[in-house]
Each structure stands twice: as structure tokens, then as C-alpha cells.
Design brief:
The complex is a heterodimer of chains A (90) and B (370). In chain A, 42% of the residues lie in helices and 29% in strands. With 90 residues, chain A is α+β, with helices and mostly antiparallel strands. Chain A has a domain of 60 residues. Chain A has a three-stranded antiparallel β-sheet. Chain A has a three-stranded antiparallel β-sheet with strand order 2-3-4, covered by helices on one side. In chain A, helix 2 crosses helix 3. With 370 residues, chain B is of the alpha/beta class. Chain B is built from 14 helices and eight strands. Chain B has an eight-stranded mixed β-sheet with strand order 6-5-4-3-2-1-7-8, with helices on one face. The interface between A and B is large, with 38 and 35 residues.
Amino acid sequence: MTDAKIRHSEEVAFRVIDGSAVLVTSNEAALYWLNPVATRIWELADGSRRATEISDAICEEFEVDGERALSDVNDMIAAFVEKQLLTQNA
Amino acid sequence: MTTTTQPSEATVQEPSSHRLFAKLVRTADRQNIPLTASIELTQRCNLACVHCYNFDRSRPLSRDSLAQELQPSEIYDIIDQLAEAGCLFLSFTGGEALMHPHLNDFVVHARSRHFVVKIKTNGATLTERKVGQLAAAQVAGFDISLYGADASTHDAFTLVDGSFDRTMEGIRHARRSGIPVRVNMCATRHNADQIERMIEMAESRGCGVGVTPFLTARYDGTDSSLDHRVERKQLERIYSGPLRDFLPKPDFDPKRSVQCGCARTNCGISATGDVYPCIGAPIPSGNLRRQSFAEIWKDSPELNRIRRLELEDFRSCVTCPTRPSCMRSSGVVYSNTGNYTGAESFTCMDAEVRMAVHRERTSATSGDPE
């Protein structure tokens, strides 16, 4: 996972509202409301960064432990890839 | 990382999406974010429906009106401005949206700006090829209008022979592609006895259903569209029959708002760039050829006047005994009376019928009218 660049799935619609990202699947079957850290991870997952780079940015911006941040970032990416909200480019 | 910012806590999914959507609307309402918007791409249409709110379609669309319609470059820019304003749910409408030669490009552009994009259409030109193009452009759904359960009723309403067959064909193509379809029905005096069949037709094809008895006067000031409204007896039959399971229960909360999302979470944009509080409330509140969307949305006296309205400003509605069942739309009231905060006789009649049907049903099951 750490070698792939992470980007938003083409099928998801989203907007950051009141500091939180709101994601809607293309068929409107599901709505997701992200907390501030997840919102920041979502914003960083724009296709230009790998999980490690996203994790580094989260560490810096939220002053959190690197290992923990990487683990949480990887968990979120895995969950969102499974839900087809994020995709990974080799 | 604190527990309140764990990414693993970040997502909430179905079945709580309805609750989340309500939270989203409340947030947008608090912050005046135009969460939903409709853009009228054109007033051109391939049908000539007798209830059309644009203009009296027994006459042709004037060349002047057509010449003033937004250019594609302006529409792209408006889409960008709406994204910037926080709009997430975007509908393309008309006239007939499918008549616009750049519709597909607009959908592609809106999707690149991360909108949920829907198209309101009569479906009569929704060919397999067009559905395929729009599916590839990632349209989220079609709202397709149906005016009768058979060709003679539907075509007499659209004034175009063969439109029923083509609309049903359009619905078939859309469903075959997997794109969600909601079939929107205006209950009128012509189709009131067909509503049950129309609902069955839609549901048997895997479509959602929307039914409304509310018609409005037109942008051009004519109001013969209202001649087609359903009669009281017909409404009683519809609410006691095919719509009995769709009727919301009366809400007896005295603080219940009589307002909708107009100018708060919703806006409309006309084919000539006028910004409205809602596409169904055609109160010109600024024009996008003269001002940015952000300026109009923030500073328009018309929009701000609506935002400042309190329950007490709707004087004729506050103490009305049928308010618990009233489905008042300020856009409908404004279109038909010119008074945004007033009452409108058809809406009042509709609420009376809803209330009476609820009382009958309740007393039949419990012996207690409320």
C-alpha cells in the first residue's frame, strides 16, 4: 500500500462543509461524514501522494506519533478502498 | 492523536444515512450553504405540456428569449461558482435539459467538480446512446415526468403524439443502464384516476416515485396551467387510495416551520442567469451576468428577506387548523398569488383533505381522531 499513490474514486461526490468532508457514493446509496483528521487525509489523497506521505503530513499538522499516524492512515485507506471511495495508483 | 480525531471513527454509513443527511441539511441551513441547486439549461422543449411553468407553450419560444440564454462557457463558470459555494447536489433542468447540445459536457464538468448530478427530463429523447453517454459521464439519476398511465392521457397533456411511448422507452433505457430513476407525477384532473396504475408502472420498472398535486402559474404571467389542477373529490380519492401509504403523519408541533429550504440550502438558476431562492420560487434575486454567485447569495435583498422570515410572518398559516397536514411550498404560493408568505387556496384545500383522510384513518383504527 505504501508504494501506491492514493486518489479519490471517480465515482464519489464530495464537498468539505463546515470543516468536514461529506462523501456521497454515485448512486447516493451511502453518505459519509468525516471527522477533521479523516477530512485532512481525504484532502491529501488527491492522487499526488502515497500513504506514507499522507501520514507524514498528518504527523506534522496534528502533532501525532508517526507510527500511530501511519497505521491509522493505512486503516482508513484500506477501508475506503474497500468501499470504492479511494483508489490506489501504482 | 486524540480519540475524537481517529480516522477509524471517521465514517458512518447506511443505515444511518438518512440521519446524516438530515444533519447535513441542518449544517447547511445554519451556515447558509446552497447544498442543492438547479440550473435551467434552456427553455427549449420537445414537448408542449399544458402545465409548463416556463411559458405558455401553445406559443413558440421567442427568438429574444432563446438569444438571452446562458452560453456554455457561462454555465461551466456557474458550476464552478456553485462548487465554491459548497453546493453538492446539482440538477440540470429546463425546458428540456436533454435538448441542450452540451448537456453531456456539463455533466462531465460538474462531476470533475465532485457534484452529485441529476437530470430532470421528460425522458422522451432518452435513447440508449444518450443514456450510455450520460452513464459514462456519471450522472447519478434521472427524474422523469409521467402524466398518464396510457398514451392518450399522457400525450393529450404533453400535446405531442407518441411522447408516452418515447418516455416509457427512455425509462427502460435508463433502468437497463442501472441509473436510478424517479418517476415524477403531477396528479391532475386528467390522470387522477390513473395514479395507482402510474405508480405500479414505475415501481414495476424499479423506479422511485414522486407524486404532487401542485401546479403553478407561469414565469410569463399566464396561469392557464392552473386549469388542470386536480379537483377536491379526486384528491380525496387519491389520498384515501393510491397515496394512503405515502402520506406523512400530521405534525402537531406548534413550532413546526412552514418554510422550506428556499434561499437557505437551496437555489435555482434560470436559463438567463437569474438566481432564484428555488427553481420553483421564481423571485429574481440577482443575475449572474452582472454579479458573482457568492455576491448574490450573500447580499441579495430578496434572499436575505426570505432568510429573515419567522414563523409569525406567515400570518394566515400560523393559526390554521390544517397546518399539521399542510405541505405548503412558498414557491407554489408565490407563483400563484405573488405573496411568498401568504396562503393559497389549493394548498389549503390539499391540507384540509390530508387532515380529513388522516382523521378517518385514525378513527377507523383506534376510534380516536388524533
